[in-house]
Amino acid sequence: MTASAADRPRLGVGMVGYAFMGVAHSQAWRNAPRFFDLPADVDMAVVAGRNPANVRAAADRLGWRRAVTDWRELVASDEVDLVDICTPGDLHAQIALAALAAGKHVLCEKPLANSVAEAQEMADAAAAAPGQVAMVGFTYRRVPAVQLARTLVADGRIGQVRHVRAQYLQDWIADPQAPLSWRLDKQKAGSGALGDIGAHVVDLAQFVTGEEVTGVSAVLETFVTERPVAEEFTGLSGSSSGSGATGPVTVDDAAVFLGRMSGGGLATFEATRFAYGRKNAIRLEINGSAGSLAFDFEDMNVLHFFDAHEPAATAGFRRIVVTEPEHAYVAAWWPAGHGLGYEHAFTHQAVDLVRGVVAGEHPTPTFADGLQVQRVLDAVERSAAAQSTWTPVTTSAS
Ligand code: SOE
């Protein structure tokens, strides 16, 4: 890091990719210093993308000083201290390894990689560079209600974890005519709903309970195997080229699995993009020996808490509105009750990252955490392929 004009450290950021995640990260880099007291000035130095006109336009729109068409140039640039990877998964490992080798800090979108082997290499490279921060973008950890859930579990308020019920439900490809996107291409994305959104709930379940998933029994399904070729994409939705051309879906559309937690509890996970009406429902319910917690991202400023010690006559789920200055990150934003949204967790991620870099600490989730989630995803895929614990129900014919 260089010193900025006011003699404060300057953290130069270079971001690779500028689609949906790149837009969210850009907003976070812009807002972090405006709302939080940071120990360094954030310089949105360089953005990289393949198309010269589009990346220049994105730089202007999103607030990046310079645009380049080769991520290697960004990684090599003296202006860049931290490389922020917002590309499809097939580029995560290459870029992160190059960035770590060049002495840069790294923020990598989730899932960490497209395979355990890649994730292992990335985690090893990060471990070999202890002076550099390497973090994975499991952003939902930084929703204040999720932070409160973790604190309540850690403080023993629900006792020993018995059940974890985790779902990530979306519907943006429920229509069979929704066009192909890179998220439906195994080469690019590694897996489908499993890695794209299932990874988030695996991470959340582990983060909130402070435990790990130790084993799984899974089924995966691809409901629509052929889709129209896309013309262009904004956000998640795309328009089909209208040419009638179609292409194969090479990933899972939905993942459902059981798991065991390291503390002895049982878990169920569901990740699908076929849940009509559910736009970004990230639901986590945890039942412990002394109470329960429930969270749904579609009502993200609220955490439900049931305390089993309360008298039965008046006990009930308490609806905690997580917008008080006492709640994680909230004091930097709006007065109580005014609420936060999707983008705020990205800002919190940027804040923790800048603080970690300056303090020489490693904010979680680290690449090692990303590798652990990747191992769970891998176990899910192996279990689904093996069908080893799958027991068909007998029919009158069998
Ligand atoms: C698409 O399913 C997606 O953009 C994911 O890739 C993100 O990680 C999730 O937060 C929102 O949905």
UniProtKB/TrEMBL annotation:
Residues annotated as domain Gfo/Idh/MocA-like oxidoreductase N-terminal: 12-136
**Protein keywords:** NAD, Oxidoreductase
Q: Where is the composition biased (Polar residues)?
A: 388-398
- Domain of life, per lineage: Bacteria
Q: Does the keyword Transmembrane apply?
A: no
Q: Where is the GFO/IDH/MocA-like oxidoreductase domain?
A: 146-293
Q: Which SUPFAM superfamilies match?
A: Glyceraldehyde-3-phosphate dehydrogenase-like, C-terminal domain, NAD(P)-binding Rossmann-fold domains
**Transmembrane stretches, by residue range?**
none
Mind telling me which PANTHER family this protein's record contains?
Answer: BCDNA.GH03377
Q: What is this protein called?
A: Gfo/Idh/MocA family oxidoreductase
